[in-house]
Amino acid sequence: MLALIGIGLIVTLFYSTGSIKVSDQEVTSSRLLGSKSLRWSEIERISMRGQNLRLHNHDEDIVLSLDSQVEGYPEILDIVFSKRPDLFKKGEDTVLSSGWLANLYILGFGLFLIIAFSVFMFSLSEEFEKISSAILVAMGVWLLVSWFLSPKSIALEDRTLLVMHFFKEVSYSAEDIRFISLEKTRTKDGYVYFPQLNLKSGKKIKLPGFKQGTVITYQVLKKWHEKAISNRDNYFRNARV
User: Fold this and answer.
1) What is the DSSP annotation of 98-139?
2) DSSP at 208
3) What does pLDDT average to in each consecutive run of 10 residues of the chain (241 residues)?
4) What's the pLDDT score for residue 133?
5) pTM
6) What residue spans define the domains of the chain?
């Protein structure tokens, strides 16, 4: 028992003592047992592991993982991609979509909860067991409804963002959007991040990370919006000349 408590404390310390430091020359990720650094010029490519952005050097012998649980993670991402915008362009896309495997998993799990526990609910005699089964059936229904209502893909045009749902398509111009942010919500396992469209009307639209991942989705949308607004301003500026 004491051994398990000790292991738990070590794991907690390992993750809670993480930090990320950025300077003009390099980025450093530190943990309880040590740290890794990469100069900006040494970064060859990026990848994702969960919500953590990973930076790889050319020889692949150094992989620096940026912990998404540290404070200021969205600001750190902005610094990384401002220092090395070419890394972002390698992951840039004009269509963001959810993966078929993730969709299949959500649909399958939701249907399993509904069908399996509906059968159990009518075969059980105890009231408590029936209530428990009904709750799980409701969870399955909520899961399927949430899937149907959530965006399935996003297409980026010059100054228009098209959000495709299962039954409809909604378009927003760059002028409709006040800004794009990376928001977070706390769970028992830590922070979970998601991109969000913040409209000038005050409406906030929560988006999935799609198969590109939360970080890439956020950066693609943010860069698209900045470019669209900049092109609009340049157009009106030239028109007045």
Assistant:
1) --HHHHHHHHHHHHHHHHHHHHHHHH---HHHHHHHHHHHHH
2) -
3) 46 57 90 81 89 91 90 90 78 68 73 76 66 80 80 87 86 93 87 92 87 86 90 66 56
4) 77
5) 0.72
6) 2-90, 100-149, 152-240
Interatomic CA distance for residues 48 and 87, integer angstroms: 13
Residue 241, amino acid: V
Residue 83 contacts by C-beta under 8 Å, 6 or more apart in sequence?
Answer: 22, 40
CATH of 152-240, one of 2.60.40, 2.30.29, 1.10.3470, 1.10.8: 2.30.29
* Calpha distance 114→51 (Å, rounded): 30
Question: Is residue 141 within 8 Å of residue 114, measured between CB atoms?
Answer: yes
- Alpha carbon distance 222, 91 (integer Å): 13
pLDDT at residue 25, as a whole number: 92
Which residues lie closer than 8 Å to 68 by C-beta, 6 or more apart? Answer: 50, 51, 52, 53, 190, 191, 193
CATH code, residues 2-90: 2.30.29
**End-to-end distance of the chain based on CA atoms, in angstroms?**
77
Of 61, 202, 203, 92, give the one whose Cα is nearest residue 156.
92
Burial 85-101 (b: 16+ CB within 10 A, else e): eebbeebeeeebbbeee
Q: For residues 150 and 143, what is the distance between their CA atoms, to the nearest angstrom?
A: 11
Identify which of 12, 47, 43 has the alpha carbon closest to the alpha carbon of residue 28: 43
Cβ neighbours around 219 below 10 Å, total: 26
